[in-house]
Design a protein that fits this description.
TIM Barrel; globular; binds iron/sulfur cluster
Length: 365
């Protein structure tokens, strides 16, 4: 792995867009990319599926065509749910090289591995494929992103020591209240560099309830609430880099400020996070707005948008604002139109019972 890795990575899954998420605002992304690079950061994380396949192309236009190849690192991912045989691996990988406009990938990942996708990976020989693309100079490092139990993670790490790194969903809420701590422990046990995704839990740790925000602001008045979540992750030993899905130039500015002169959390600050969590009520629906479920929905329900509005309502209690945002979702795409077919659920890495949660959210309106 690269010896010097800045602790902040640029996640390209929630880029700014106009109207539809496929229509990425490239001029805005250029400013974000330029600022990120100008501050000495290098790691850009995308995937075949982000922004309906447009994220890789957006990075080609805003980063790859405009900056020297040695000035950045590209990470992208193989959509394991779309792979049926060995040929698919080569076909998709070659398509990615083309879409990105590069002849090698720095960090290549098997995307969203879990128990079922491990079976697929074994069947299609995805691990051998990873070794081959490294031998051929088409990838520098190969790893996997993961959403399942610590037991499944251990099985994969034990059986495939050739994996260079692992990407895990870690944030202070999931460590204290979920199973992220156990995943972290496994990665440490097998001595794998950890890339953290969702450190701010899809943005939900960027806004806390009033008492929690007041406590954090009192401790560090100039720091954003999101910066606490990022510093928590980047302070963990063994963490190679922390990805932040950036949606506008202000977020890049804030993140860069946090990491330029990085200060790990002190013991007192760790305790403050514990207190904040004990007082807070967490996130009502643990949706990270990854949007993987959207493609499967025959009703075209705006699933993550509904959950974002619902979570904000549960956090702030502002019914009028929630109803107004809910009614702004285009007609026919709100929660009441869900037919409870369940097709979305197998795509959700957070294991959310989407139809039930939508039914609950629909009560806002
Ligand atoms: S359960 Fe509802 S939200 Fe999920 S795919 Fe079916 S209609 Fe869409
Ligand atoms: S419901 Fe699940 S799959 Fe859909 S956006 Fe939220 S976290 Fe992602």
């Amino acid at each position: 792995m690269d010896a010097y890795m800045p602790k902040l990575g640029f996640g390209a899954m929630r880029l700014p867009f106009n109207g539809s998420e496929s229509n990425i605002d490239l001029e805005h992304v250029k400013r974000m990319v330029d600022l990120f690079l100008s501050k000495g950061f290098k790691y850009f994380d995308t995937a075949y599926v982000y922004h309906n396949g447009q994220s890789e192309i957006a990075l080609k236009e805003t980063l790859i065509k405009r900056h020297p190849r040695a000035s950045y690192w590209i990470a992208t991912k193989m959509p394991m749910w779309s792979v049926r045989n060995v040929k698919d691996l080569d076909r998709i990988f070659n398509e990615q090289l083309k879409k990105l406009g590069v002849d090698y990938i720095d960090y290549y990942l098997l995307h969203a591995m879990d128990s079922g996708r491990e079976d697929t990976a074994l069947k299609v020989k995805a691990y051998e494929f990873g070794e081959r693309i490294k031998r051929e100079g088409k990838a520098r490092f190969v790893g996997f992103s993961f959403h399942d139990s610590a037991d499944v993670l251990e099985r994969i790490l034990k059986n495939h020591p050739q994996m260079d790194f692992v990407q895990l969903q870690i944030n202070y809420l999931d460590v204290k209240e979920g199973s992220a701590g156990k995943l972290y422990d496994q990665a440490i046990k097998y001595n794998k560099p950890i890339i953290i995704m969702e450190p701010v839990k899809g943005g939900s740790l960027a806004k806390l309830d009033k008492a929690a925000e007041t406590a954090l602001k009192a401790a560090r008045p100039n720091d954003s609430i999101a910066s606490w979540a990022l510093r928590y992750c980047a302070s963990l030993p063994g963490v190679y880099t922390t990805l932040s899905g950036m949606s506008n130039i202000q977020q890049v500015e804030d993140n860069v400020k946090t990491f330029e002169n990085f200060e790990p959390l002190t013991e007192d600050e760790q305790k403050l996070i514990d207190i904040v969590l004990r007082a807070g009520k967490g996130t009502a629906v643990p949706c990270t707005a990854c949007r993987y479920c959207l493609e499967a929905c025959p009703q075209d329900i705006a699933i993550p948008d509904v959950f974002t509005i619902y979570n904000e309502y549960m956090r702030a209690g502002d019914k009028e604002a929630a109803v107004s945002s809910y009614r702004a979702i285009s007609q026919g795409h709100t929660a009441e139109n869900c037919i409870a077919c369940g097709a979305c659920m197998e795509h959700c890495p957070q294991g959310i019972k989407i139809p039930d949660a939508l039914a609950e959210a629909a009560k806002i309106a």
